[in-house]
TrEMBL record, chain A:
Its EC number is 7.6.2.11. This is Spermidine/putrescine import ATP-binding protein PotA. CDD domains: ABC_PotA_N. GO terms for molecular function: ABC-type putrescine transporter activity; ATP binding; ATP hydrolysis activity. Residues 6-237 form the ABC transporter domain. It holds the Pfam family TOBE_2. It is an enzyme of class 7 (translocase).
From TrEMBL, chain B:
The chain crosses the membrane at residues 12-33, 61-83, 90-114, 134-158, 238-261. Keywords: Cell membrane, Membrane, Transmembrane, Transmembrane helix, Transport. Belongs to the binding-protein-dependent transport system permease family. CysTW subfamily. This is Spermidine/putrescine ABC transporter permease. Residues 57-259 form the ABC transmembrane type-1 domain. The keyword tRNA-binding does not apply. It is a multi-pass membrane protein. One of its GO terms (cellular component) is plasma membrane. It comes from Compostibacillus humi. It comes from the Bacteria. Its main location: membrane. PANTHER family: INNER MEMBRANE ABC TRANSPORTER PERMEASE PROTEIN YDCU-RELATED (PTHR42929:SF1), INNER MEMBRANE ABC TRANSPORTER PERMEASE PROTEIN YDCU-RELATED-RELATED (PTHR42929). One of its GO terms (biological process) is transmembrane transport.
Length: 368, 266
């Protein structure tokens, strides 16, 4: 059912003698889903979009669109449309003509153009703005015009390059809902670029976490949040406590000077690893009831919860999100479930990582 | 208080405008109402609409038009290529430098080049075409004028092209446009202001060229500029000279109105 629409096979991109921008990247995009490319500034997100759109060519590797190699197909012949980071609306044309631009190039009939433009504008809630000059539109409205200009062509894929980053917080939240809703209604594949992890988690069916021109991890927002593959992903997505430790044996891990039961297995005995514990998975107790004891060094009220920072005896720093208050200088205990511990191996590839995680679920279904 | 200082600052500016813009124009208009003997008359205006002067006017407009069109046709692609070069500011400077050389010097240089034994004729000889009369022709007049004016055409067009947001060009490609459509529907409309500025700074001075008409065109081309010079310096008919100048000024304002002011999408 779910068919692949875009595929990258070992794509590398390098400008002149500069360091590689994309390093042997391979992935598949399925029809009709909302994808997000997430990563810090300069990691190569825009470059991936430009390769899909055809504005630039890969140095090596192949790009497929609906199973056909498109490396040599120019941008104006590809079935994708882009919503640019700076919107790239035509300043000499009004809203109507901006949206109609692609249809006029296709030499569509006037009446048909009129119908489609009106429809696209109502999709983005801009009825009645047809005759406005682009300069007279606000940031959020320009954003919608840019989206209307893309969807009116009924492409198979829409590429969106940080379309919300120029908007203020409130408008951004609103547009996140609208974009997600729009994608569901249209059923078109969206490839959305952002450096904002919250935005990525909120909107996507699938996230690709990218760093330094490599895809670090791909998966659903839940997968990536709950089971980050490495320190970069754990750190980039949400807040996390990352502690050095040792995998003593299957289901037993040692960190912060103590041994704990966990649900991970499949590592070497006594293999050095890192564990991730999310701040919201830690529960504050009295010191003698806690699995770990920390001394509180600071506390911030974040509205929904308190953000408490502390250090344990070994000097590891711990962040806790709790609705309970603590006192700075006080000693508190921390409790957590074995499921809250997530073990990460060093330099594990995504395939090895996926295989390891799959073996856990098999155990569960065996009724371990 | 603040208003007062502002008025104070305006005084030199207004003074300058009155002394060097308003007063000369007023004087020109004033002189245009006197005949050669110093009697008040409106006859000069009637005389302007006789075949002699109308022919001159048409010829002026025709040559100015030719010079502008040829400059534009050469300048637009040049400016476009310049924006694509690596050291574009350096190239631009090289194109502008000749405009710093005195007009008369450049005219004399061309007399040398286009003369009977000049470089141009030597070249024609070598490639087997044989020597030709180059100097004192329409061709040499238009050629030299274009050479002199072209930097002023390139400069505003270059700036307009250079300021074009490159992601707009990606956007047109993205929406399926061919190169030609991209040029016609996006690049040209968005650089039209540069083209208009270029037309203004080339067409208006071309209308009243007079030195080149004698030096390069050998008085075969008679323009309104030549006529003004003749009336003031030779026939001493300042009234008629001023009348022609009034028409030139009106023409300038018309061209400014046609090409300027109404800016969209700036
Ligand atoms: N045209 C180009 N020439 C040279 N380097 C480029 C070009 N475009 C992008 N880069 C480099 O590629 C890297 C990735 O850029 P980009 O894909 O825009 O990152 P992101 O969108 O993730 O912020 C950056 O280091 C950038 O400097
Ligand atoms: Mg980018």
């Amino acid at each position: 059912m779910a068919s692949t629409i875009i595929q990258f096979k070992n794509v590398t991109k390098q400008y002149g003698q500069d360091p590689v921008v994309l390093d042997n990247v391979s992935f598949e995009i399925e029809k009709g889903k909302f994808y997000t490319l997430l990563g810090p500034s300069g990691c190569g997100k825009t470059t991936i979009l430009r390769l899909i759109a055809g504005f630039t060519e890969p140095t090596s590797g192949e790009i497929f669109f609906n199973g056909k190699k498109v490396n040599d197909i120019p941008a104006n012949k590809r079935q994708v449309n882009t919503v640019f980071q700076d919107y790239a609306l035509f300043p000499h044309l009004n809203v109507y003509e901006n949206v109609a631009f692609g249809l006029r190039i296709k030499k569509m009939k006037k009446s048909e153009i009129d119908k489609k433009v009106k429809e696209a504008l109502s999709f983005v809630n801009l009825n009645g703005y047809e005759d406005r000059d682009i300069q007279d539109m606000s940031g959020g409205q320009k954003q919608r015009v840019a989206i209307a200009r893309a969807i009116v062509n009924e492409p198979e894929v829409i590429l969106l390059d940080e379309p919300l980053s120029a908007l203020d917080l409130k408008l951004r939240y609103q547009m996140q809902y609208e974009l997600r809703e729009l994608q569901r209604r249209l059923g078109i594949t969206f490839i959305f670029v952002t450096h904002d992890q919250e935005e990525a988690l909120a909107m996507s069916d699938e996230i690709f976490v990218i760093n330094k021109g490599k895809i670090q991890q791909s998966g659903t927002p839940n997968d990536i949040y709950d089971e980050p593959i490495n320190r970069f992903v754990a750190d980039f997505i949400g807040e996390s406590n990352i502690i050095q430790g040792t995998m003593i044996e299957d289901y037993v891990v040692e960190f912060a000077g103590k041994r704990f039961a966990c649900v991970d297995k499949g590592m070497e005995r006594n293999e050095p690893i890192e564990v991730v514990l999310r701040p919201e998975d830690l529960e504050i107790t009295s010191p003698d009831q806690g699995l770990i004891q920390i001394k509180v060094i600071s506390q911030l009220f974040r509205g929904v919860h308190y953000e408490i920072l502390g250090v344990d005896e070994q000097g590891n720093e711990w962040m806790v999100h709790s609705t309970k208050k603590a006192q700075v200088g006080m000693e508190i205990g921390l409790r957590f479930e074995p499921e809250a511990i997530h073990v990460m191996r060093f330099n594990e590839s995504e395939e090895e990582f996926d295989k390891r995680l799959e073996s856990y679920t098999e155990d569960e279904s065996d009724g371990k | 208080m603040e208003n007062k200082t502002r008025t104070l600052y305006m005084i030199p500016y207004i003074g300058w405008i009155i002394l060097f813009v308003v007063a000369p124009i007023a004087l020109v208009v004033y002189y245009s109402f006197f005949d050669i003997h110093g009697n008040f008359t409106v006859g000069n205006y009637g005389k302007f609409f006789t075949p002699v002067y109308l022919k001159m006017a048409i010829s002026s407009f025709w040559y100015a038009f030719l010079i502008t069109i040829i400059s534009l046709a050469a300048a637009y692609p040049t400016a476009y290529l310049l924006t694509k070069t690596k050291h574009k500011q350096l190239w631009l400077l090289l194109i502008i430098v000749p405009s710093w050389v005195n007009l008369l010097l450049k005219a004399y240089a061309f007399i040398g080049i286009f003369g009977a034994h000049g470089a141009a004729n030597q070249f024609l000889d070598i490639i087997g075409i044989g020597t030709k009369q180059l100097l004192f022709t329409d061709f040499s007049f238009v050629f030299v004028s274009v050479y002199i004016f072209i930097p002023f055409m390139i400069l505003p067009i270059f700036n307009a092209l250079d300021n074009l947001n490159p992601s707009l060009l990606d956007a047109t490609k993205d929406l399926g446009a061919s190169k030609w459509t991209t040029f016609r529907r996006v690049i040209l409309p968005l650089t039209l202001n540069g083209v208009k500025s270029g037309i203004q700074v080339v067409f208006i001075p071309s209308l009243s060229l007079f030195m080149l008409t004698r030096l390069i065109a050998g008085n075969r081309v008679i323009t309104l500029g030549t006529a003004i010079e003749q009336h003031f310096l030779v026939t001493q008919d300042w009234g008629m000279g001023s009348t022609i100048a009034v028409f030139l000024i009106i023409a300038m304002f018309l061209i400014m109105a046609l090409t300027g002011f109404r800016r969209r999408g700036a």
